[in-house]
Structures are given as structure tokens and as C-alpha cells.
Amino acid sequence: MEEQKLLFVYNAGSDFFSSLTDMAHKTFSPSTYQCHLCTLTFGKFSIKKEWKSFIDSLAIKSVFLYKNQF
Q: DSSP label at 57?
């Protein structure tokens, strides 16, 4: 039986241009930003400490993908 995993998919691309555009969008127009998972998990430059602690506390492995990787 395969190990169970919790899969998260960001509604954003994984390439450099997408990352740069997303950072600007979150900064200048956060209410219209399309990736709610990005908003929940990341600040402007790095993962939120509270989110990392939560994920690390789970008893199941978590996998994060971007929509172009799914």
C-alpha cells in the first residue's frame, strides 16, 4: 500500500516570472490575488512560521505543487 500524502496545489506557476508577478500582485492588490493557498502559506518573501509549524506537526506527509506541476 502506498504511503498517504496530503496534496496542496498552488493556483500559481512555478517559474521565475510567475513568482515575481505573484509577489507584486500580493503586495499591491492582495484582495484580487487568485492563489489563496499562497496567501495562507507565504509572506512576501518566505513561508509563514505558523504555517511551517502546522505542517511539521501533521502526522501525514504534505506535498506542495504549483498548478503547472500538477
A: H
CB atoms within 10 A of CB 19: 14
User: Mind listing the pLDDT tens digit for each residue in 36-69?
Assistant: 888 889 887 789 999 999 999 999 999 999 898 9
Query: Tell me, what DSSP letter sits at residue 42?
Result: B
Q: Between the CA of residue 61 and those of 26, 27, 38, 50, 56, what are the distances in Å?
A: 28, 30, 19, 17, 9
Beta strands in the chain (DSSP E): 5-10, 61-66
- Considering the entire predicted model, what is its pTM? 0.75
pLDDT at 22 over 80: no
Domain count of the fold of the chain? 1
Domain, as residue range, for 61: 5-66
